[in-house]
Fold each of these.
Amino acid sequence: MSSTPTIGVLALQGDVREHRAALEASGARAVTVRRPDELAAVDGLVLPGGESTTIDKLLRIFGLADPLRARIADGLPVYGSCAGMILLADRVLGGTSDQQTLGGLRATVRRNAFGRQVDSFEADLPFAHLDGGPVHAVFIRAPWIEEVGDGVDVLARIPDDYPEPVAGKIVAVRQGSLLATSFHPEISGDRRVHEHFVQIVKES
């Protein structure tokens, strides 16, 4: 890999343009991925926010689901934000009866855990391994992680001064080359999560 990794953004639905801009600003070459041959050409991949059930169906329609599962199993670095976190998780609570995930992340994620669109909110979160103070996080119909398995490093939780049942919920994790957040750093202007993922790709 060159010093400038090529990182794809799954371009079936969601904040594709914003993720590409954040990756480019973080030192990567960012490309869109819609086909298996485009997936095969990237060093890492971002699964953006959107509607997880819709993205799941589109992955199967576009013939990307199985190739992507195989690349994840083979160690492809992947960052999932919001719906992307749901797609990476091995188990989903609150999903539809036919909903599938890509899997790979040993975690149980609760879909739409924070409520509907009107329950969107912002928070400043201490984030492990990132310098520069708390990360300003934007949550939009966001999931949270109910539990994690072996090898999953919890990076951020909702602060304890938030009301129950939100306080203390896990909203960012890393497992090897997989990174996932409940929130949308691509729209907050804080590039540190994307910079962190670019570094993960380089190290892989």
Amino acid sequence: MAYYMGIDGGGTKTQAVLADENGNILSRAISGASNPNAVGEKQLIQVFQTLFLELDNEGKTRLENVKLVYAGIAGSANPANHILLESILSELLPHATVFVEPDAICALYSGTYGGAGIVQIAGTGSITYGMNEAGEQGRVGGWGYLFGDEGSGYAIGRAGVTEALKSVDGRGEPTILLEMLYEHFQVLQPQELIKKVYNAKQPKTIIAPLSRIVFQAYAQEDVVAQAILQQAAKDIASQIMSLYRTLFTSDEKTKVVLCGGVFQEKAVMPVLLKDYLKNIPLILVQPEFPPVAGSLIGAYKQATIQVSQNMLEQMKNTQ
């Protein structure tokens, strides 16, 4: 029997699933980072070798039966990175046909099941990616925390600190964010708060989790937190609308898959976002499956295997 593999790789970890042509999940594996912008060629080879050994842990030479691999890897939009990844995977899996795509496509497929649509990713960073019925792909944003990432956890966390400090200056509205940040950092004054952030080796990793505090303040009806999340929703809506106009016709009903921690509170950001997008025929979807399931769906799509409802049920085992 032929087997199919889906891979979802990023700057922190890489996940893979192996399945048969009927959607039965045979094995799952997880390894280290596989974004070529973050790791070198030798480390990439090691990461994939570890991944495949774990997938084949029962020693039944399953990997020799892999017919097709669909890998969604962060950083693969760069042509040189794409060639490198395709070369490594093809060498490690010589019997398989290899397809390498940006990781956002896997996230898209986790909600559209291989169909056209838009995926809005908003975690630590943010990016809007999409594909229309003709297979044309496009992106908006994703330029990193220095030049973009609007609506991301980082952007929300940074705004939370900024507005709290404005309240200290008397330039902004009073907000419970200030005391919540003090408590989070175990400090008593703004200078100590700033020192905690600036002394961090990677301030981004300190600031992005502060978005949770903004959501907590929002739940307590803090007007400053409400304004921050309204702005984040507006920024995300702007990105989605821009990509929609590029890839789809004005009356084309389109799924928008929402992925990432910013959408975790289903009653907050998805609701705010829906209000900003109410005049466009978009269907907001929060996927039931992780992106690695989307990569497996991508493998089946390339093999022209129709994904049935029963197969989708099996994919819940990729969680």
